[in-house]
Design brief:
- The structure is a single chain.
- The protein is α+β, with helices and mostly antiparallel strands and 86 residues long.
- It has a domain at 33-86.
- The chain is 24% helix and 19% strand.
- It has helices spanning 15-29, 50-55, and strands at 35-38, 44-49, 71-76.
- The chain has a three-stranded antiparallel beta sheet with strand order 1-2-3.
- It is elongated, with a radius of gyration of 16 Å.
Length: 86
């Protein structure tokens, strides 16, 4: 189950928003083992073949799916997915 945070000066999540988060987490936890997920900070969640990446001797951290022809799909989302690290 997602961890919900109480943040000062923001409205708490509604029950409907929490339900959406629950469903999204459930879906993401069921990601097929072949899929690697990435974003470049845009309106797409990229899916690549992480098994093929490993077979080519490329670590997932160094794998640029489009450069290695391993992109399986780009899923459009309504808000950009920020590419923050750390």
């Amino acid at each position: 189950m997602p961890i919900y945070n109480e943040i000062p000066n923001t409205a708490p999540l509604s029950e409907q928003e929490k339900l959406w988060c629950d469903k999204l987490e459930e879906l993401l936890l069921s990601t097929p083992s072949r899929f690697g997920l990435y974003t470049t900070g845009n309106y797409y969640l990229g899916i690549f073949d992480k098994i093929a990446c490993e077979k080519q001797g490329i670590t997932q951290e160094d794998c640029l799916p489009s450069q290695h022809n391993l992109d399986l799909a780009d899923i459009k989302v309504s808000e950009p997915i920020q590419g923050w690290c750390g």
